[in-house]
Amino acid sequence: MSLASLYLVLYNIIQFFGWCYLLVISVLHLVQTKQIDGLWFEIALPLKIFQTWMAVEVLHSAFRLVRSSAVTTLVQIASRVFIVWLVFDLVPVTRVKPGLALCAIAWPIAESTRYLYYILSSSGSVPGVVVWLRYSLFLVLYPLGVLGEMLSVYASLPAYQKSVISLAGVSVRVYSLLIGILVIYIPGLFVMYRHMLLQRRKVLAPKTTSSRKKIH
């Protein structure tokens, strides 16, 4: 195994356990307390660590360590990092809204499944059930995650109503930017969902084992 491959395996293992941990504490909190309030304080630190760390995956793609598109990876991770740091972390009201609960469940399930798939792929053998989960759970989880993100951005709007930032010397209202982001989410969901459906069709269609390994 090359040094790069060993690095990717270790990275995937750590991320897998990190997201599993996030899923466990999120589910336990919601089941035991039956409320969203307080959930952020339990998941904030690990979520910031593992979600922000995922930014290195853009480099993984850029340097051809993996086959994923660097642009697609950047868009997906940037939107998540934005939600974590500029919405949940800076706007307290978003921490008691349904959007947080949706993200706290959908994100960890999706990521733990994805990293498990990558770990097993490195061994050369992925059980059929894991392949199916990797390319099927998104059918429900992706819309739920996007809904959670949109609800959270919407909940943050009042807090940013008077905020202004300078872009290339031009003053821009943060409120307007957030509205623009919400509008972009709709076509973005369609494009990404279609892309993942095509990937699902390629992977789950009858094929040889060798050709299946090439798609991530």
UniProtKB/TrEMBL annotation:
Alphabetical GO biological process terms: fatty acid elongation; sphingolipid biosynthetic process; very long-chain fatty acid biosynthetic process
Keywords annotated in UniProt: Endoplasmic reticulum, Fatty acid biosynthesis, Fatty acid metabolism, Lipid biosynthesis, Lipid metabolism, Lyase, Membrane, Transmembrane, Transmembrane helix
Membrane topology: Multi-pass membrane protein
Origin: domain of life: Eukaryota
Function, as annotated: Catalyzes the third of the four reactions of the long-chain fatty acids elongation cycle. This endoplasmic reticulum-bound enzymatic process, allows the addition of two carbons to the chain of long- and very long-chain fatty acids/VLCFAs per cycle. This enzyme catalyzes the dehydration of the 3-hydroxyacyl-CoA intermediate into trans-2,3-enoyl-CoA, within each cycle of fatty acid elongation. Thereby, it participates to the production of VLCFAs of different chain lengths that are involved in multiple biological processes as precursors of membrane lipids and lipid mediators.
The protein, known as: Very-long-chain (3R)-3-hydroxyacyl-CoA dehydratase
UniProt-recorded Gene Ontology molecular function terms: very-long-chain (3R)-3-hydroxyacyl-CoA dehydratase activity
Subcellular location: Endoplasmic reticulum membrane; Membrane
Metabolic or biological pathway: Lipid metabolism; fatty acid biosynthesis
Recorded family membership: Belongs to the very long-chain fatty acids dehydratase HACD family.
Gene Ontology, cellular component aspect: endoplasmic reticulum membrane
InterPro entries, per database record: Tyr_Pase-like_PTPLA
Pfam family, one: PTPLA
Record-listed E.C. numbers: 4.2.1.134
Transmembrane annotation, as ranges: 6-31, 115-133, 140-160, 172-193
Keyword match ATP-binding: no
Parts forming coiled coils: none
